[in-house]
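Structure ticket #2291
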Amino acid sequence: MRAVEVRISVRGLVEFILRAGDIDNRRKSSPEDAMLEGGRVHRMIQRRMGSDYHAEVSMKHRWEFEKYCLVVEGRADGVIDGNPVTIDEIKGTYRELNRMKTADPVHLAQAKCYAWMYGKEHEQEEMKVQMTYCNLDTEEVRRFTFQYSMKELTEWFLDVIEQYKRWSDEEIAWKETRQASIRAAAFPFPYREGQKELVTHVYHTICHKKKLFLEAPTGVGKTVSTVFPAVKAVGEKKADRIFYLTAKTITRTVADNTFELLRAQGLKFKTVILTAKEKICFMEETECNPEYCPFAKGHYDRINGAIFDLMKSEEHYSREKIEEYAGKHQVCPFEMMLDMSLFSDGIICDYNYVFDPHVYLRRFFGDGSPKERYLFLVDEAHNLLERGREMYSAVLYKEDFLNLKRTVKAIEPGMEKHLERCNRELLNLKRECEDWCIVDHIDPFVQALQRLSSTMEDYLENHDDGPVRDDILKFYFEVSHFLQIYELVDEKYVMYTQFDGEGRFYLKLFNVDPSTNLRECLNRSVSSILFSATFLPIQYYKKLLGGEETDYEVYAKSTFDPERKALFLAGDVTSKYTRRSDQEYYNIAYYIHQIVRMRYGNYMVFFPSHSFLQKVLEVYQECFAGEDRAECLVQEEYMSEENREDFLSRFEGNEECCLSDVIQMEIEVEEEQSLVGFCVLGGIFSEGIDLKNDKLIGALIVGTGLPQVCTEREILKQYFQEEGEDGFDYAYRYPGMNKVLQAAGRVIRTSQDIGLVALLDERFGLRSYLKLFPREWERFEIVSKETVAARVEKFWNDWL
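Resolution: structure written out below.
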């Protein structure tokens, strides 16, 4: 039987065991840019070397322990023939090389590992180590050389291995426990109709190393139905780690609760939820330097002790536990949380940690990261399309260059000149733009921007503080993002200029089709399961989210009784701009009145905009609210977290009582009244809220959810039309219908719920919309102002 292996890269080994000192983000202005440029300088330096220089030499060493084999591996940048042989380690940096007194200890340790591995294999007595530093801007090179006997290297390296052994011993012991518990794990509920087939689809997708695009209606138990087979796959060594990716906090909580449920039944599976730095930071400001933050000072001296303490004590690395242990050991809770992900079997986090080109987890997906097999479970994956467009687009405003130019004028005249050159290039683009304009090439601007970026990097590397540093740093990140995205620009991008509503001029790199970028990220996994309750049309999402022809699609069967939900289509009102009038607002308010008066309860009405909402609200309050005994709650345009919670709390009812129980009681209460929430379609209350039982008995949706006509929607329309698709569908109808389906999904959250959905726009009766209805909407009634009350009354009476 093949021995169990624990593998770690040379870089990972020394950066973990030998890290020390403070967190200080003042000295590292752009690590991702340094990494990108580092590859270039490596190749440049290697090409300049002679025939005795051997580049990118792979090395590996194995240690056989009682229960496992530890494998340390990596690639030395260079091996130079000679007596003794020299190991060359190349590092790119933005630091001024003449200020460096010696090599960085961790960098040197990396080279010493390769020196020992080479010397051991080739029976050397002495080895030399050369640290080669190259300034990424000037390409200036500085070298530091060291010589060691093999005895010195052996003593040093075996001590590093011994320090790491307690971690690898713990890893092996935990995995044995985990795997045994997974083999014994059973699905935590009796299977609902179709649920076992759904679990099987997910498992087979993982086995075949494909992507699955899953339309999973509310009630199928999509979270447990994806998590359970993924856990089983880890138990069968088809994967090493699960990433549960979400767009919203509430879905992260549901995933966390699912793992907790499985742990309560005996599963041994360590999980962590990654929380935004702003939320978990102990300080008022996220200033990560030892002068401001006591937790940053000496963080790396204490962090490994903190990790081991928590790892040995808990299996659920919740935010509260991380804060507790970070406080106990006086370390940064955010950095500790990220480190705990390395010791977790499941990581629950926002999309950003896998897909965002800046904040993705380099410890898992970057160069030198461990060669592990990951599973991605992507929840509410319909959100990934717009998030993907945002993450892989970039924008710069002309006015921001002028503002920073004025700020640095008296302090950094060199930077001022580069800012002015960028401003002039944008001015040339501005002269060609009346309202908005697609541009074919921006090379002169990019060249000026690259020179500005180098100047800013130099300033930030050599100034820990100063009156303009914060302004420069903030704008530098924007410039860096733009340049990084520019490197990705291809035929799936559109570059355009425009004046915004305040008259400011900007240039944008718009990733109209993010499929290539998202596919590259998804390919970091051995298998990805993308699922949503509103994933229609599935081919639209499969195409734009990076799916391939051989990937799978599944439409899960709803487990809810369709008789418990009524679906009404209004055939005589609309939110179309050409029909908006006082009479149309009255007609819509009349529909709300006719539906609400048939049964007291909680309702939400969703509108295409705040202004439309206000027009109908005024009519309803004036003409009908009193008669309906209805209290109206209004979603404000800007709501704090507290205000949102207050809004939702008004819909909260008795947890133990559901609407069917109320109907069976047939009790009439004189004081009964209705609660009607006036909300915006696509807003904070139309997705991700879970009002079960009688907390919401009706959702009324005004309009088809079409996004407002704007520059980017028109660019999307034109782009996909030229690609042979229906441009209007891709830019307007499909995104709009998704908002409608999400809002409708707020009703009927459990198998015991009873409720209605009313689509208040005659356009829903058109074939172009009917074909987008989910299977659960096959049964519907077309109603009018004159008939809607009777049809609603009949539905409720059928349940008396």
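Closing remark: The longest helix spans residues 150-184.
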